[in-house]
Design brief:
CATH superfamily of the largest domain: Spore Coat Polysaccharide Biosynthesis Protein SpsA, Chain A
GO molecular function: glycosyltransferase activity
Radius of gyration: 19 Å
InterPro entries: Glyco_trans_2-like, Nucleotide-diphossugar_trans
Low-confidence stretches: none
Protein name: Glycosyltransferase family 2 protein
CATH architecture of the largest domain: Alpha-Beta Complex
Oligomer: single chain
Mean pLDDT: 92
Strand order of the largest sheet: 3-2-1-4-9-6-12-5
CATH topology of the largest domain: Spore Coat Polysaccharide Biosynthesis Protein SpsA, Chain A
CATH class of the largest domain: Alpha Beta
Order of helices and strands: EHEHEHEEHEEEEEEEHHHH
Family: Belongs to the glycosyltransferase 2 family. WaaE/KdtX subfamily.
Shape: globular
Strand content: 15-25%
EC number: 2.4.-.-
């Protein structure tokens, strides 16, 4: 049997009984030293699944301000292991991913890793389009997620598009984590409407802080520049569908690129709406 890594896997959830057991099974029993579930008041069978698998559950109640769920965990329940991985319930670890982690985590010069995820749309894996990447694996104590003061303007109790701000060199894991979200188009649209509202609120508050862009990655800098124009939607479509091969997925690729372009256009419109409201005050 392989020795478990000095790694805590934190799984933030709320009503994830349909996905959670599969996520836990994919982790396995000899990969991570500890698994912890961060729960936001689940009312389904999620907690029974945690209990059946003898997994510790931390109950998170958000007061609408900083910190949100992931930073709360890092600050108030700091893992005793060397590494922490934040994993959503619809993200399943592959054997190739776990093997690559075992090799790369030995590098003492790295403090974190960018992870890559598969993407599914209309029931099938996507071949093209923008890759889904997150900085979700890092050394405990190397940093935490961006500090964004919300003061009750969001309904999202967990860091969504915030990146961890780490001190040190960051590597990349090439093997993909399977992102198996099959909750349908209605869920996708509702979720992205919430994300768009958050992105717009965040942007309007960020431009008031002249120094915050020093923490941005180059991708974030391009994104926030484009957010100030209605070209952000078309720009995403052109990049996703043509430059990054979304056309390889046929009609699904076209529909997905249109939906995502609409999402970014929605962010722009919500930003303009917030500016109008602010000018009226």
């Amino acid at each position: 049997m392989k020795k478990s890594l000095s790694l805590t896997i934190a799984i933030p959830i709320k009503n994830e009984e349909k996905l959670l057991q599969g996520c836990i099974d994919a982790i396995g029993t000899d990969f991570a030293e500890k698994i912890i579930i961060l729960d936001s008041g689940s009312t389904d069978g999620s907690l029974e699944i945690a209990s059946r698998n003898k997994i510790e559950v931390l109950d998170f109640k958000w007061n609408g301000q900083f910190p949100k769920k992931r930073n709360w965990f890092l600050q108030d329940h700091t893992p005793s292991t060397k590494w922490v991985l934040f994993l959503d319930a619809d993200e399943y670890l592959s054997e190739s991913f776990k093997s690559e982690i075992r090799e790369n985590i030995k590098n003492d010069n790295l403090v974190g890793f960018w992870l890559t995820y598969t993407r599914y749309f209309l029931g099938k894996k996507m071949k093209g389009g923008y890759p889904l990447r997150k900085l979700a694996l890092f050394r405990v104590g190397a940093g935490e997620y961006e500090k964004i003061e919300e003061n009750n303007w969001s309904t999202l109790d967990m860091e969504i598009h915030e990146h961890p701000v780490l001190e040190g060199q960051i590597g990349t894991i090439k093997s993909e984590i399977d992102h198996l979200d099959f909750r349908g188009i209605s869920h996708y649209i509702i979720k992205h409407n919430e994300y768009a509202s958050w992105e717009a609120e965040r942007f309007v508050k960020m431009i008031e802080n002249k120094s915050i862009d020093q923490q941005w990655t180059w991708k974030q800098k391009i994104k926030y520049k484009l957010m100030q124009t209605p070209f952000i939607g078309p720009a995403f479509f052109l990049g996703s569908y043509f430059l990054l091969g979304g056309f390889r997925d046929g009609s699904r690729g076209l529909a997905f690129s249109i939906l995502k372009a609409s999402y970014f256009t929605q962010i722009y419109c919500k930003i303009e709406e917030l500016k109008l409201e602010k000018n009226k005050k």
